């Protein structure tokens, strides 16, 4: 919400700087390290949106720090013992779909050959893209997600964000237990 309102008055570069300052002043506890088993979600990521997501169980979502606002985040993710990839994640209730449960839906910026339900997903949330918001149409939602992905790709190339790709967190052996 804040970013979308600021775009009306300031250039995009200025808005990004203001959002970064906003996140710093909010003292968001980033980075956040998270690991857990991938479960089936609502079934709309791939089917309705064309943007597959990996979903965490409720116990992982419940352990998020309470001062993490709902919204879209970027970071790094690894499935089981695979490679580390860029990711973008929605944390919240997804108002367009009127979810009753808070969720963490991760879109890994890599094309996997098959689904990986039951696999361990480890990730590091390193930055904030925007607050959660509602959309007037499915097309508007899809456009926003594509913009979020583009922003995540750009931000993850910055040295301060790229360094997390090689974190020792990803070198730990995956467990079946959910942790945060």
**Helical coverage, percent range:** 25-40%
The description of the largest β-sheet is: 6 strands, antiparallel
Q: Which spans of ≥5 residues are poorly predicted at pLDDT below 50?
A: 1-7
Query: CATH top level?
Result: Mainly Beta
Q: How many structural domains can be distinguished in the coordinates? A: 1
N/C terminus separation: 27 Å
Description:
By secondary structure, the chain is an alpha+beta fold. It has one domain (about 30-170): Riboflavin kinase-like (Elongation Factor Tu (Ef-tu), domain 3). Helix content is about 25%, strand content about 25%. The chain has a 6-stranded antiparallel beta sheet. Strand 3 and strand 4 form a beta hairpin.
Précis, in short:
The chain is of the alpha+beta class and 180 residues long. The protein has helices spanning 2-6, 12-25, 58-62, 138-156, 159-162; strands spanning 32-37, 54-55, 71-79, 84-92, 103-108, 120-131. Helix content is 26%, strand content 24%.
Any chance you could write out the topology, listing elements then pairs?
Elements: H1 2-6, H2 12-25, E1 32-37, E2 54-55, H3 58-62, E3 71-79, E4 84-92, E5 103-108, E6 120-131, H4 138-156, H5 159-162
Antiparallel strand pairs: 1-6, 2-5, 3-4, 3-6, 4-5
Supply database-style keywords.
about 180 residues, alpha+beta, Elongation Factor Tu (Ef-tu), domain 3
């Amino acid at each position: 919400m804040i970013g979308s309102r600021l775009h009306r008055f300031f250039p995009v570069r200025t808005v990004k700087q203001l959002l970064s300052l906003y996140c710093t002043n909010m003292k968001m506890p980033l980075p956040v390290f998270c690991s857990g088993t991938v479960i089936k979600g609502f079934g709309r990521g791939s089917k309705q949106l064309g943007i597959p997501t990996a979903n965490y169980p409720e116990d992982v979502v419940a352990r998020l720090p309470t001062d993490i606002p709902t919204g879209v985040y970027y970071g790094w993710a690894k499935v089981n013992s695979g490679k580390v990839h860029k990711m973008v994640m929605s944390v919240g209730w997804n108002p367009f779909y009127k979810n009753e449960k808070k969720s963490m839906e991760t879109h890994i910026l890599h094309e996997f050959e098959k689904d990986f339900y039951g696999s361990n997903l480890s990730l590091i949330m390193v930055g904030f893209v925007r607050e959660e918001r509602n959309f007037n149409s499915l097309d508007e939602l899809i456009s926003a997600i594509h913009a979020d992905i583009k922003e995540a790709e750009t931000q993850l190339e910055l040295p301060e964000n790229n360094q997390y790709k090689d974190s020792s967190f990803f070198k730990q052996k995956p467990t079946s237990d959910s942790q945060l």
